[in-house]
Amino acid sequence: MTASLAQPNRNSDTYRHAYGRINGLVVVGEGLADRHFRLLARAIPEDREELERLAAMEGRHARDFVDCGRQAGVPPDLGLARRLFAPLHALFLRYDRAGNRSGCLVIQGLIVECFALAAYRHYLPVADPYSQGVTAAVMADETEHLSYAESWLAQRFTQVQAAVEQCCAMALPMPMSMLQTLAGDLRVVGIEPVELLATFSELFQGSLELIGFTPSAARRILIGAAATAAAGSARAI
Ligand code: PL3
Ligand code: FE2
Ligand code: FE2
Q1: Distance of alpha carbon 51 from alpha carbon 129, whole angstroms
Q2: Separation in Å, CA 198 to CA 136, 159, 204
Q3: 60 Cβ contact partners less than 8 Å away, ≥ 6 residues apart
Q4: Lining residues, ligand 1, CB within 6 Å
């Protein structure tokens, strides 16, 4: 199955430019994940050690993906990545300051981790051999990060349900618009953005159900966010 996928020409300028933009997003995303888990470690002191361990894993991921770019001889576009991540990071900080722990966990533990897992799953078959090894190892860690957030939220479902819904309505359209911005670059490196979005939706739907939402409530949350994202991009035209 994976062998039949068209491999991109990794030496072309088009590929290298797109790779630098996506690798930049991954490096910045992993670095922010490190910061977010450190802030969560302060917000949830009973799980401090575990959350600091997860943060350290994220720091390692960031360094590992920097190495991938170095191996490929392509510099990451960090400026673009920081601009693209700014709204999601700002919302995380706002929730953190307000003591909204479930909002913080939804942003980092569900949304960012599901996006990372979906993106890495689709990158794996089209990655160069060096990045392939790194990506496969990182994916196992991201699954653990997602599970932490899922079980924390599931254990408190009735108390957090409203905050989770509210956070999804605010935050979910953000990565969707990041995805739109990078759609062309993703295609160049061999990832079909629509497939990435489908995998993300599947993972996110599964997470919402696992924490306690009914399948139809979970679907409503995702569809609502997709509609907001589409309205946002229509305004931008
Ligand atoms: C968490 O451990 C790591 C976060 C890394 C983010 C990876 C982004 C993947 C790039 C594909 C573009 C989709 C945009 C969505 C960004 C959340
Ligand atoms: Fe990570
Ligand atoms: Fe992670």
Answers
A1: 31
A2: 20, 29, 10
A3: none
A4: 22, 25-26, 29-30, 33, 58, 61, 112-113, 115-116, 119, 142, 145, 175, 178-179, 182
Ligand at minimal distance from the CA of 171 is 1
Tell me the one-letter amino acid at 232: G
- The model's pLDDT over 100-149, given as tens digits with 9 standing for 90+, comes to 999 999 999 999 999 999 999 999 999 999 999 999 999 999 999 999 99
Please tell me whether the overall predicted TM-score, pTM, comes out greater than 0.85 for this model: yes
Question: What pLDDT is recorded for position 229?
Answer: 82
Is the distance from CB of 162 to CB of 125 less than 8 angstroms?
no
Query: How many angstroms separate the alpha carbon of residue 181 from the centre of ligand 1?
Result: 13
Place of tokens 């670095």: 31
Start-to-end CA span in the chain (Å)? 38
CA dist 50 and 30 (Å) reads 17
235 CA → ligand 2 middle, Å: 32
The rounded Å distance from CA 55 to ligand 2 centre is 9
